[in-house]
């Protein structure tokens, strides 16, 4: 099997029963993605596959031939943090840190969904959802945090999301697309 | 030249410590909300947890739990699975495997022996495979024959109750005056029973152990453990080896909340299997096993009696509690622990009984005792206020005791009144309306209040500080950081005491190769380990002063420079080329008996209850706390956010359901055991009151990790009552319990 993981071509000989999460953690030494429940109930294993956030424990590695997979290690390193990683540090958007990589990967995917105009259960206008506190809370509720850093997680995402939204608007204007 | 070398500085808290050097150091880092020093590693996936260490030739171990709730194992058919591809072996050791997890701080082995099944899921074997998938497959298929026995699988208050129990932070039985006579004579009384269900800590990281033996018979276990020093002793006793032969490494722990205080079954199973195989074994519990075999907070039934004069002054407080546990285990949920001292009143009774059941072990979960005990006390106080026609805050202020009403000793520090009054102002309590009176559309809105109290403890702990010639320092200890912020606050203390920037302090925690410490639990971690670092650093300060030929009080250490008498030199230059090392050790002393020590606070909650669906939403919450010196505003606030959210969970969501036919936990995963999610938790307001506690320890800090949960559920429940006029006494308060009583449209 071949995958592109964090921009690098990786190969692995995997059991058909191996989940994407176990591929990352046990075969490729990418332990940043966490196993909290192995049943898609907690979100700690969230990674980005072809730009979309998914629970990597709920998908088998053999389903991902040639897919582009981004894990927490691919977003940034301690020396060069991704803007969301830095915001989580600044806002104390964690405590024990175990759900954190999943929260951050999920937030990256979630901001992309908002930018793409996907509505949510709490969107007042399904065709053009904004990024307010309620939207973040709703869209991040698949990522459990038992330390309950939720208010701080929202603050971190809101800070980056505001920049994200203005960047998206700038980009849209540049491309001649009306916002 | 000065003969620095190593030295020790020990302090037993027999006397108050009115002077803390932290008040006169000049950098002022302690108290600031500095970012976590381990933050960049955590957010980038570089923090390594127990199951993530890379070792060669590791075998994957998958635990197998009993499929019955009571009986005996007749046989395990190893041959049925041993031939499966990738399966190495099935290991069991009926005598050595531990039947239950150990309680926190114990130094003996927990109950061992797994031939006898005492509860559903009890770990009886571990399947080893070259891959996780092979081991898991075999574990699922492994045939086990049982001789099923009759067990007690349901909790009943009609069952025989055991009240003759050893003390557990509070005596099982206590009485003062005559509660029955006082209740008979009191003009206003409340006599109600509150029930709370079993709960699970549900830390995000499942329990995990990676065990490996060396050629000399020494075991290294990478584990997710809160108290490595005592955990290593428990593990050694369980395995029958010398304590010096067991090392536990727990550098990062993905949450504990009590569930990782003592060793859990995967540790011994991994160690036994690693020995048997002669290769490292990694055993990670499945989430379902975390629910089945670690530890639960006991369910409780709590009869609460309050008697007061018409002026609102309490004359009687009775808190008779019953919890449950296995019949080999004497741990009882100390639900009445803060009822002893929270309010005045001459006639008192606090009791703790157990009903014996064949359910998994009950033990510590965040704020054992107060977390559920204050539900009963604080809701009953709300009921009493309603009966008296007195504001709930006024009722609490009226019953503020001048001293511990049972032990007759002073409080070391107590900011309950300030928390209630300042909180009321900040929250807008004066806008609260009578029960059921405020409605916005389909939503009934209510406010609730509750007091918070959590006993403060100090636990013997050591820390070593080494100041290096290059002007950096290393702090090492078996202390842990379970998300509480230990790495950061200990860095702040060392930095201020030694006059070094934060980035010149290196922290080495979570390893029993370091000096021993009590670890993390019971809200003692920061104050205990922090005091140990303080004491070690104080010794180094004295040595630096000697090197400068001044008194320690004259020495200013700042930004890497030692300054005294118009002389400023780099601190590292005073080391004479060799590290200056000192070990600090703090221990509890007479101050614990001479003063009642506790952290206090007040919780305020506003909820909305949908009149059509019964849905309950927490709209806002405020917690005001007095916990001595706050070491880091940000990490302390996060601890309180977490505690308050546990309170929301206890009030509205969390309930382990035991199958009454087998004792099996029916909802043993994170989809069925509901903990609060992001959308359940509004922005929470946290305020810390200025406070110092000179009786607690030399850094004047008290515990902050649990006071945030204490009373939080009561405030939410009281808000639900204020919104609806419906008093639910069986927790959690779910919509089905409100629906029949909501106003009909």
Defining key terms:
heterodimer; A: 179 residues; alpha+beta; Ubiquitin-like (UB roll); DNA polymerase, domain 1; five-stranded mixed sheet; 5 strands; 11% strand; globular; B: 745 residues; Aldehyde Oxidoreductase, domain 4; six-stranded mixed sheet; 16 helices; 29 strands; 2Fe-2S_ferredoxin-like_sf (chain A); metal-binding (chain A)
Describe the structure.
Chain A: Keywords: 2Fe-2S, Iron, Iron-sulfur, Metal-binding, Oxidoreductase. Chain A: One of its GO terms (molecular function) is oxidoreductase activity, acting on the aldehyde or oxo group of donors. Chain A: This is Xanthine dehydrogenase YagT iron-sulfur-binding subunit. The complex is a heterodimer of chains A (179) and B (745). By secondary structure, chain A is an alpha+beta fold. Chain A folds into two domains: 2-75, Ubiquitin-like (UB roll) (Roll); 83-174, DNA polymerase, domain 1, CATH 1.10.150. Chain A has six helices and five strands, in the order E-E-H-E-E-E-H-H-H-H-H. In chain A, helix 3 (83-90) packs antiparallel against helix 6 (150-174). Chain A starts with a strand and ends in a 5-residue tail after the last helix. The model of chain A has no long low-confidence stretch (mean pLDDT 93). Chain B is built from 16 helices and 29 strands. In chain B, a hairpin with a 5-residue loop joins strand 11 (208-213) and strand 12. The chains are: A alpha+beta (179), B alpha+beta (745). At the A-B interface, helix 1, helix 2, helix 3, helix 4 and helix 5 of A face helix 1, helix 3 and helix 14 of B.
- Please identify the oligomeric state: heterodimer
Assign the structural class of chain B, choosing from mainly alpha, mainly beta, alpha/beta, alpha+beta, or little secondary structure. alpha+beta
The name of the CATH superfamily of the largest domain in chain B reads Aldehyde oxidase/xanthine dehydrogenase, molybdopterin binding domain
Give me the CATH superfamily of the largest domain in chain A.
[2Fe-2S]-binding domain
Q: What's the CATH class label of the largest domain in chain B?
A: Alpha Beta
Report mean pLDDT of chain A, rounded to a whole number.
Answer: 93
Q: Could you estimate the helical fraction of the residues of chain A in percent?
A: 25-40%
CATH class of the largest domain in chain A: Mainly Alpha
Please indicate the count of domains of chain B: 3
Class based on secondary structure composition and strand pairing of chain A: alpha+beta
Poorly predicted residue ranges of chain B: none
Spatial arrangement of strands, main beta sheet of chain B:
4-6-2-14-11-12-13
Helix percentage of chain B: 10-25%
What is the fold-level CATH name, i.e. the topology of the largest domain in chain B? Aldehyde Oxidoreductase, domain 4
**What Rg of chain A, in angstroms, do the CA atoms define?**
16 Å
Pfam family, one (chain A): Fer2_2
Keywords (chain A): 2Fe-2S, Iron, Iron-sulfur, Metal-binding, Oxidoreductase
Domain 2Fe-2S ferredoxin-type (chain A): 1-75
GO molecular function, one term (chain A): oxidoreductase activity, acting on the aldehyde or oxo group of donors
């Amino acid at each position: 099997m071949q995958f592109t993981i964090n921009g690098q071509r990786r190969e692995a000989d995997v059991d058909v029963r191996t989940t994407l999460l176990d591929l990352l953690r046990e075969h490729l030494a990418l332990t940043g993605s966490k196993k909290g429940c192995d049943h898609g109930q907690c979100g700690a294993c969230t990674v980005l596959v072809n730009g979309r956030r998914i629970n990597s424990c709920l998908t088998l590695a053999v389903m991902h031939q040639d897919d582009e997979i981004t894990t927490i290690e691919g977003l940034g390193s301690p020396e060069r943090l991704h803007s969301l990683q830095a915001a989580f540090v600044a806002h104390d958007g964690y405590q024990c840190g175990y759900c954190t990589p999943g929260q951050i990967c999920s937030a990256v995917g979630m901001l992309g969904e908002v930018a793409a105009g996907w509505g949510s259960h709490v969107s007042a206008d399904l065709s053009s959802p904004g990024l307010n506190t309620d939207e973040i809370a709703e869209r991040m509720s698949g990522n459990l945090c038992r330390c309950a850093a939720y208010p701080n997680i929202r603050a971190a995402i809101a800070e980056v999301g505001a920049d994200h939204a203005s960047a998206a608007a700038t980009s849209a204007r540049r491309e001649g697309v009306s916002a | 030249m000065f003969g620095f070398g190593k030295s020790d500085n020990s302090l037993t808290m027999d006397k108050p410590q009115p002077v803390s050097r932290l008040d006169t150091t000049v950098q002022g880092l302690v108290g600031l909300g500095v970012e976590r020093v381990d933050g960049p590693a955590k957010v980038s996936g570089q923090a390594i947890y127990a199951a993530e260490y890379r070792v060669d030739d590791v075998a994957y171990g998958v635990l197998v739990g009993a499929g019955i709730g009571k009986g005996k194992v007749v046989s395990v058919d190893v041959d049925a699975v041993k031939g499966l591809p990738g399966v190495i072996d099935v290991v069991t050791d009926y005598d050595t495997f531990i039947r239950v997890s150990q309680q926190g701080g114990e130094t003996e082995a927990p109950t061992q022996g797994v031939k006898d099944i005492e509860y559903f899921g009890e770990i009886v074997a571990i399947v080893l495979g070259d891959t996780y998938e092979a081991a898991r497959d075999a574990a699922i298929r492994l045939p086990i024959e049982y001789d099923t026995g009759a067990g007690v699988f349901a909790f009943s208050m009609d069952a025989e109750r055991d009240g003759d129990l050893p003390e557990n932070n509070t005596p099982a039985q206590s009485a003062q005056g005559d509660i029955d006579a006082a209740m008979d004579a009191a003009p206003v009384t409340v006599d109600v029973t509150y029930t709370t269900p079993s709960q699970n800590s549900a830390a995000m990281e499942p329990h995990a152990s990676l065990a490996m033996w060396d050629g000399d018979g020494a075991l290294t276990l990478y584990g997710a453990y809160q108290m490595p020093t005592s955990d290593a002793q428990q593990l050694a006793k369980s395995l029958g080896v010398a304590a010096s032969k067991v090392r536990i490494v727990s550098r990062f722990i993905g949450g504990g909340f009590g569930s990782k205080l003592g060793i859990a079954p995967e540790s011994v199973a991994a160690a036994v299997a690693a020995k048997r195989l002669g290769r490292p074994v990694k055993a990670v519990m499945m989430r379902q096993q975390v629910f089945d075999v670690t530890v639960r907070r006991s369910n409780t039934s709590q009869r609460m009696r309050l008697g007061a004069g018409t002026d609102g002054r309490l004359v009687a407080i009775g808190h008779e509690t019953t919890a449950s546990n296995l019949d080999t285990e004497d741990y009882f949920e100390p639900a009445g622990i803060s009822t002893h001292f929270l309010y005045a009143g001459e006639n008192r009774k606090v009791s703790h009984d157990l009903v014996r059941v064949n359910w998994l072990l009950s033990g510590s979960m965040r704020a054992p005792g107060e977390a559920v005990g204050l539900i009963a006390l604080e809701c009953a106080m709300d009921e009493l206020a309603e009966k008296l026609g007195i504001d709930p805050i006024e009722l609490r202020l009226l019953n503020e005791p001048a001293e511990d009403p049972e032990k007759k000793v002073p409080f070391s520090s107590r900011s309950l009144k300030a928390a209630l009054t300042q909180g009321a102002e900040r929250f807008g309590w004066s806008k609260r309306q009578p029960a059921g009176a405020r409605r916005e559309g389909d939503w009934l809105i209510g406010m609730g209040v509750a007091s918070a109290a959590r006993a403060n403890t100090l636990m013997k702990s050591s820390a070593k500080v080494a100041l290096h010639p290059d002007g950096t320092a290393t702090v090492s200890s078996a202390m842990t950081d379970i998300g509480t912020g230990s790495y950061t606050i200990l860095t702040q203390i060392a930095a201020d005491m030694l006059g070094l920037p934060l980035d010149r302090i290196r922290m080495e925690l979570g390893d029993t190769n370091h000096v021993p410490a009590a670890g993390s639990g019971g809200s003692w971690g920061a104050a205990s380990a922090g005091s140990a670092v303080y004491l070690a650093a104080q010794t180094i300060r004295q040595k630096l002063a000697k090197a400068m030929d001044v008194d320690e009080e004259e020495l200013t250490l700042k930004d890497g420079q030692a300054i005294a008498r118009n002389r400023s030199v780099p601190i590292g230059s005073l080391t004479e080329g060799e590290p200056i090392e000192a070990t600090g050790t703090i221990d509890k002393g007479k101050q614990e008996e001479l003063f009642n020590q506790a952290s206090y606070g007040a919780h305020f909650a506003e909820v909305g209850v949908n009149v059509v669906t019964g849905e309950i939403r927490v709209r806002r919450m405020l917690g005001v706390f007095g916990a001595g010196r706050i070491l880091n505003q940000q990490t302390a606030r996060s601890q309180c956010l977490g505690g308050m959210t546990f309170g929301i969970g206890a009030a509205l969501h969390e309930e382990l359901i035991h199958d009454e036919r087998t004792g099996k936990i029916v909802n043993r995963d994170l989809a069925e055991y509901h903990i609060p999610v992001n959308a359940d938790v509004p922005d929470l307001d946290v305020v810390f009151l200025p406070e110092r506690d000179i009786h607690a320890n030399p850094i004047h800090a008290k515990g902050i990790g649990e006071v945030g949960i204490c009373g939080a559920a009561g405030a939410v429940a009281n808000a639900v009552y204020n919104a609806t006029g419906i008093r639910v006494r069986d927790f959690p308060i779910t919509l089905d319990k409100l629906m029949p009583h909501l106003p009909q449209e």
